[in-house]
Amino acid sequence: MIISRSWLQEWLDISGITTEEIIKKLNSIGLEVAEYKKIDIPSKVVVGKVLECEKHPNADKLSVCKVDVGDGIKQIVCGAKNVAKDQYVPVALVGTILPGDFKIKPAKLRGVDSEGMICSSTEIGLPKLEDGIMILDESIGKLELGKEIREYKILNDEIIDIELTANRGDCLSIYGIARELSAAFDISVKNIEDIVFDNNEKMQLGIGRVLHIKHEECDSSLLYKVFSKKDYKNPLKIRVRLGFIEEDLKNEIENLAFYTTYSVGTILRSYGYNIFKKDNDALIEIKKDENFMDAVFNDKKVSIIGINQIKESKPSKEDPYFIIEASYTDPELLAKKYYEACKKNKIDTDWVYYRSSRGSNPDLYMGMDYFCYLVKEYSDIDIFSGTHEILKDKETQTINVNLDNLSKLIGQEVSHNKIVNILVKLGFSIVKSEDKNLVIKIAPFRHDIKNEQDIAEECVRFIGIDNIEPKPFKFEEKNRINEAMRDFKKRKDLRTKAVSAGFYETTNYIFTDKEKLKKYGLKIVKNELDLINPITNDLNTLRTSLIPGLLEQVVNNVKNGKRGIRLFEIGTIFDENRNESTSFALIFSGIKEEDSVSNHGKPDEVDFDTFVKKISSIIGDFELEKCNVQNSLMHTFQSANILKNGTVLGKVYKLHIQCQKELELPVTYICELDFEKIPYSLKEAKEYSKYQVAFRDLSVLVDKDIQFLKIKEILKKNLPKEVKRFYPVDIYESEKLGDKKSLTIRFVVQSDEKTLSEDEIGTIMQSLLDILKTQINAELR
């Protein structure tokens, strides 16, 4: 976004602020300045008036001019085609040094003396405005003969190029930048009413006499006005500023519309009258095109609102009038729906799309009023009274802001008045202010403001990041992880670990065979809650366990020649009352590893220990306790509850030999867990000792009927802090031992403070033996 100091001055009084300060402030509020350039018109280039212009006697392409330069009349030979009598022109006097180190000296051209040079815009350091010399007018200020051109600030301007992010469409205008600087310097930006004086149309004939609008439901807001078409040329001020921003649309009316858009941010298009003319007046039809985009039609499509316009529709010399269209379309609609349509159908876009898709000024009257002001200021074009309007109510967004939360986001306490002052200067409205809460009405041109964090960012921009006291980083954000996300992550984690352990996931219907459930002794849904119209006779009830489905999958795999089968499923099951829950089941059948040289091609079948270790690799460490057989699938002597932190998660068991034979399966082990009870939380770091670990075994004789679980509970209550963990490694029974059994327990001993000596370890082991002697009459073997 290129701005100039004199252009900015029209909307904001910056006369007491240096350009260096403006650049510094723009950078501080997030509008990064990419380039700065000072236009430096040479001294001794002055305003002159051509009094006479005659053909050169010895050259067809030269003219001999008498030019009044204030302190005298100079004879100057000029080669420009557009030089003419009574023009005000820039004159480089003798002694002037023009860009390129070109010094003006007295000369004789084809025998005629020349005292100076009538200059084009490029010869004095300005952009190219036209072919030939630059013609001055009073749009740059009162023209005084002999006054140096460099004294006209509109010409001898300062140019600032600002890098804008795509979401700051509100700054794609001089007015938008002025609004930002007004908040930064705490000075008032001028309203459109301050610029546009009495705006009564010159022509009393109403717009309805010459133009009609027909429209269907559309997404855009539109405003139309008609002007008489007379010979019109933009004044020097407008042309030179368009030169600074390197824009020239090759059409005077279109250039004026673009200049207005660049000034105030409202999208303006210009149309010729004849393309819409039908009989004695014109008709514009607004409707959706074949891609469901808002478009302007006559007999054919003339333009797509916010996208493009056909060349034939622009004002021409043959048009008796011209039409100006002010438009606004939601930038999100343009950037998504319209963009996809343009990309898919290879529709070209023009300068309007760049601005409208980033968010233009929705105040259509502001743009139209400013255009009318420029027309009346610099021409005698007549304006038809009235407008045609298609206005959509733009939903006004409000945000509730708590000042305490805002201060936390900003990083320091900020006064209520300061926040309000910044927001109001930026065009926001305070709907309600109560205690420490504000209800803020978002400015309609700020499409990037969505939440409290965005408001905080606006405040930080104008408070200044350097003015906020540095503090240690403190991250504050609402927890966005809900139960559904936690459940998803838990399922994903269990699946990943099960696959890593060599299991394959399978999926079965939630329906199953009721007779099969009864046969296995599993629960069934109550008759009054069961399925009324089952899919098939084999799928006539809701499953109460995942195991029947997994067994069926194992049977199919065995029939296909598989020798080692590992499957798992995470799925929904039901209880007798049809209440849902999630179950995690695993099944391991057949050989526990593939044939290899190491096992001589004769791998062992899976055993209880192997299966339990696989489960542990998936859900972590756990304990086992003896459980009662609850159905005909469970082996009488190889069934156990799985406990973790004292909670029963489910069961692990060997498939009963009778079921194994009926299904013609090899040795099979099954585990079914309650998904909800499986612990799942963030890993927590814990302290660990850096000193040497010692492993010591303690073999004792205890009564045969004493289970290790009881011994474990006794030891836990009296365990020295140096014993990190313990577990059984051997159980031995024989006739020689009588009603006793030998139990070997391995203890892991480690101090957090030092490396333990053998004597210290011996003392710890003796204390453990004493505990067992006292509590269960254990004897050292």
Please specify the SSE layout and strand pairing.
Blueprint: E1 2-4, H1 5-9, H2 19-28, E2 32-38, E3 45-56, E4 59-68, E5 73-78, E6 88-92, E7 97-98, E8 102-103, E9 107-109, E10 112-114, E11 117-118, E12 158-163, H3 174-185, H4 192-195, E13 203-206, E14 211-215, E15 221-228, H5 236-244, H6 252-264, E16 267-272, E17 277-278, E18 281-288, E19 294-297, E20 301-304, E21 308-309, E22 321-328, H7 331-345, H8 351-356, H9 364-378, E23 384-385, E24 388-390, E25 398-402, H10 403-410, H11 416-425, E26 429-434, E27 437-441, H12 452-463, H13 483-500, E28 504-505, E29 511-512, H14 514-520, E30 541-542, H15 547-559, E31 564-574, E32 580-590, H16 608-619, E33 623-626, E34 634-644, E35 647-655, H17 657-662, E36 668-674, E37 694-703, H18 708-718, E38 723-732, E39 740-749, H19 758-776, E40 779-780
Parallel strand pairs: 13-23, 14-18, 28-31
Antiparallel strand pairs: 1-12, 2-12, 3-4, 3-6, 4-5, 6-11, 7-8, 9-10, 15-22, 15-24, 16-22, 17-18, 18-19, 19-20, 20-21, 25-27, 26-27, 29-30, 31-32, 32-36, 33-34, 34-35, 35-36, 37-39, 37-40, 38-39
